[in-house]
Amino acid sequence: MEADLDGSQRKVLASRVRPTKTAHGTEGIPLRDGKTLPFEVARSWSAPAGYYPEQWFLVHPTTREVMYESPVVTRRIFGLQSATEVTDAVEEPLELLPGGYQIVFALGGLKGGEAQVVVREESASAA
């Protein structure tokens, strides 16, 4: 059996976007008055072992406009045999409209996956 060396061999095996506080739900990005409440973006990378610049982008699916670009962080990836878990928290409020968005993940400047995420308005009573 030969290794498949076509492509970048960098991919996101699983991802999850959820509010930081469980009172705001267990999935998606919560909004209050058009601004995001704190949320987390978690993903599991599979890639050759090494250090890579990594980041993700929140993209409007219709216009393809990048609504948010995470900071670039150098990540140590453990290798193809074991997933490397990464989680970021976004504390600064972003101005967004409710609806569906995409999150695009990049490792070493190459796209490694994407996921759908729902941005939804939270009631003030869920504080």
Keywords for this entry:
single chain; mainly beta; 0% helix; 127 residues; elongated; disordered N terminus
Got a strand count?
10
Mean pLDDT: 91
Give the helix/strand class.
mainly beta
Helical segment count: 0
Biggest sheet character: 7 strands, mixed
Order of helices and strands: EEEEEEEEEE
Helix content: under 10%
Q: Return Rg in Å.
A: 16 Å
Percentage of residues in DSSP E strands: over 45%
Span between N and C termini?
55 Å
Cα shape? elongated
The residue ranges in which pLDDT falls below 50 over 5 or more consecutive positions are: 1-5
Topology:
Blueprint: E1 11-19, E2 29-32, E3 35-36, E4 39-46, E5 50-59, E6 66-69, E7 73-77, E8 84-90, E9 99-107, E10 110-121
Parallel strand pairs: 2-10
Antiparallel strand pairs: 1-4, 2-3, 4-8, 5-6, 5-7, 5-9, 9-10
Polypeptide structure, described:
- The protein is mainly beta and 127 residues long.
- The chain has strands at residues 11-19, 29-32, 35-36, 39-46, 50-59, 66-69, 73-77, 84-90, 99-107, 110-121.
- The strands form two sheets. Strands 2, 3, 5, 6, 7, 9 and 10 form a seven-stranded mixed β-sheet that branches. Strands 1-4-8 form a three-stranded antiparallel β-sheet, with no helix packed on it.
- Residues 1-5 have low confidence and may be disordered.
